[in-house]
Specification:
alpha+beta; about 10% strand; ten-stranded mixed sheet; about 675 residues; transmembrane helix; 3 domains; cell membrane; ABC_permease_BceB-typ; ABC3_permease_C
Length: about 675
């Protein structure tokens, strides 16, 4: 063979099948560009100066990993459409005398050409758009714009290596398909249909049961931590159930329509239903894939948008005061007014030196212990450390009634053994509660409590109990130690307040307070063992970086998943068009007009068009309670905002889906009608 023979055949094959290869090539370019952009953002020098840079880099790294994993699955999936289209050509080559080794060489050159164009185009677009993505991310999180343009060699190298390996695996898969097929199978691959539909109830019923189990998980879980644990289980169940329902349900739908004589025996319905009947397996799987991708986009864009626009609510939920200090004591006896007054006076002195007026002051003591919430009771046992069930783990906080009354300006009276209760991420509090053997009667469940909100950022549930006397109530727990000899009961004093100064002044004052507390701790003043001081102004950057990064990542991944859905729809229409071309050609010879063809296509669209988006919205509706609980882990409890972002997302995606399906149906029409060969 002359040099370049196989490469010329590969180029000619790509050119003749450009209708199939061009969308595939553009998708490969997009995947490479998206991966490069996210990898660039996680490694670019400007990230060191961005608000919340550590969290932001983690989010971008996660995004690049998701893109890489999705590219492996999706490019293998779309490459199968190309293989099916080319098998007839390869079978003809084989019959004419070309061995399968030579066909593998053609596949090698095709893969090499696609890989080269994808990497060059993807890296080119990625590099060109990386600065635009950087500006977009900077604008979202409110950072400072950097005018430095860089192309990290490490990111270019890693992107090239990862996608080179991916294309090599795709090539091996294509060779496997050709090597294990005989020439007759290759030639007839395009015309291989399915048997007439036989309604198999078992996979359909199994799909309904699996999907029902996923829906039950989504709506029945009350604990946000449980929602996080079971979320991925529910996702897998939804995917499996959706595929089973679409494959089995599509067959059943065809059988029902064919038995309906008034519907089936009409020229605009007859062709479309009979065509679908012979490819329901692939048709159902394609529709299920579209449905899953649309669901992923809806869940992702609605939740990340809600997080981004609700970031201030979440921030203030986590930090209710401008400045908040926490002082930890080793023994409950040390948390007395003498020691607390010494620390309070030190903080107040720092506040006066900064010319700050305090307001909305909280000042209270608290003792906390962790245990296992079982049958409505909290078991506190040092021997449980090796057998912790995180679904049952809970932290209980005890606050003296004296401090509670002072904070809220009331004069509530409690008898010994009584308590007021406030819970975070716990529902259905019983009237009687036992904590480590201490039995308490909950006389009132509080709707709110003006306390430090550290618990809102924790994964585990928290229970606050206001008790009449801290020392007497916790006498049996004060000496309890864990297996390492550490006290299980931790006693702290909280001091928080709002200020009337700007952001920079708040951060400076927080640093001054930290310095003063550090000096007290070194001099053994105040009797405390550890301390912390936080400022909402200092933490705002990290919040904005994390939530802005998630919003940006949600947009990027949504673009990728939408493009994937569009490509599946396009290939579905194109492949079905070539399969139906001969049928429509025969029907045109016996009198079927192009207008009749258009009506038949519209009938097919109306029969199956709405199913993926309808099921996606249903999936989102059942997932909504779980999504809301997951957002509670971020300290976001704005139901109106979540409903608004979800509703807008559904409208936008549904409109986009309708436009895409209409555009791709035109490609189907041009093939089956002979309008464009």
């Amino acid at each position: 063979m002359k040099a370049g023979f196989y490469s010329k055949l590969a180029i000619d094959g790509i050119r003749k099948n450009r209708r199939m290869y061009l969308p595939y090539l553009l998708t490969c370019v997009l995947m490479v560009a998206m991966f490069y952009i996210l990898a660039y953002l996680s490694n670019a020098p400007f990230m060191e100066y961005m608000p919340g840079s550590a969290s932001l880099q983690s989010v971008m790294n996660l995004g690049s990993f998701v893109i890489a994993a999705f590219a492996v699955i999706f490019l293998f999936y779309t490459n199968s459409f190309l293989l099916r289209r080319r098998k007839k050509e390869f079978g003809l080559f084989n019959i004419l005398g070309m061995d399968k080794h030579s066909i593998s060489r053609i596949l090698f050159w095709e893969t090499l050409i696609i890989a080269g164009l994808s990497l060059i185009g993807g890296l080119g677009f990625g590099i060109a758009l990386s600065k635009l993505a950087e500006l977009g991310l900077t604008n979202i999180i409110g950072g400072d714009v950097s005018y430095e343009f860089t192309v990290p060699g490490l990111v270019v190298r890693n992107t090239s290596i990862i996608f080179a390996i991916l294309f090599f695996l795709i090539y091996l898969n294509a060779v496997r398909h050709v090597r294990f097929s005989n020439p007759v199978e290759l030639i007839r691959s395009e015309n291989v249909g399915e048997k007439p539909p036989k309604a198999n109830w078992f996979p359909g019923i199994l799909g309904v049961l699996i999907l029902g189990a996923a829906y039950y998980l989504a709506v029945s879980i009350e604990n946000p931590v449980d929602a996080l644990v079971w979320f991925f289980v529910a996702v897998i169940l939804v995917i499996v159930g959706t595929y089973l329902i679409f494959i089995a349900g599509s067959v059943l739908l065809c059988r029902i329509l064919q038995k309906n004589r008034r519907y089936y025996y009409k020229k605009n319905h007859f062709i479309s239903v009979s065509s679908m009947a012979y490819r329901m397996k692939n048709n159902g799987a394609g529709l299920a894939s579209i449905c899953i991708l649309l669901t992923m986009v809806l869940v992702m864009i609605s939740s990340t948008t809600c997080l981004y626009f609700g970031k201030e609510d979440s921030l203030h939920s986590r930090y209710p005061r401008d400045i908040s200090a926490r002082i930890d004591f080793e023994h409950i006896e040390q948390a007395k007014e003498d020691n607390i007054s010494l620390v309070r006076d030190t903080i107040d002195k720092t506040v006066r030196e900064n010319n700050v007026n305090m307001s909305n002051v909280w000042d209270y003591r608290e003792s906390q212990v962790s245990g296992m919430l079982r049958d409505g009771n909290v078991e506190v046992n040092a021997d449980d450390t090796l057998s912790v069930n995180y679904d049952e783990l809970v932290t209980v906080h005890f606050i003296p009634l004296e401090d509670y009354n002072r904070m809220i300006g009331k004069n509530t009276i409690l008898s010994e053994g009584e308590a007021l209760a406030f819970s975070v991420k716990i529902s259905n509090l019983p009237e009687y509660r036992t904590v480590g053997g201490v039995k308490l009667h909950v006389v009132e469940r509080l709707a709110s409590l003006p306390i430090d909100a550290t618990s809102t950022a924790e994964m585990i549930p928290n229970l606050y109990l206001v008790v009449p006397d801290l020392d007497k109530t916790l006498a049996s727990l004060s000496e309890l130690v864990d297996s390492n000899g550490n006290r299980m009961l931790i006693t702290s004093w909280y001091y928080g307040f709002d200020t009337d100064i700007e952001v920079a002044g708040q951060i400076d004052m927080r640093n001054d307070i930290r310095e003063d507390l550090g000096q007290m701790n070194e001099g053994d003043q105040g009797g405390f063992t550890s301390y912390s001081c936080e400022s909402i102004a200092a933490e705002r950057d990290d919040f904005y970086g994390t939530y802005g990064g998630l919003f940006f990542l949600g947009i990027m991944l949504s673009i990728v998943f939408l493009v994937a859905a569009v490509l599946i729809i396009y290939y579905k229409q194109i492949s079905e068009g070539y399969e139906d071309q001969s049928r429509f050609d025969i029907m045109q010879k016996v009198g079927m007009t192009k207008q009749d063809i258009r009506k038949s296509i519209n009938s097919q669209m109306l029969t199956v068009f709405y199913l993926p988006i309808i099921f996606a919205v249903i999936h989102l509706g059942f997932a909504f309670p779980m999504i809301r609980k997951l957002l509670l882990l971020f300290g976001l409890n704005n139901l109106i905002l979540l409903l608004t972002t979800t509703g807008i997302s559904i409208v936008i995606i549904a409109f986009f889906y309708a436009v895409v399906y209409r555009m791709t149906s035109n490609a189907y029409y041009s093939i089956v009608s002979g309008a464009r060969e």
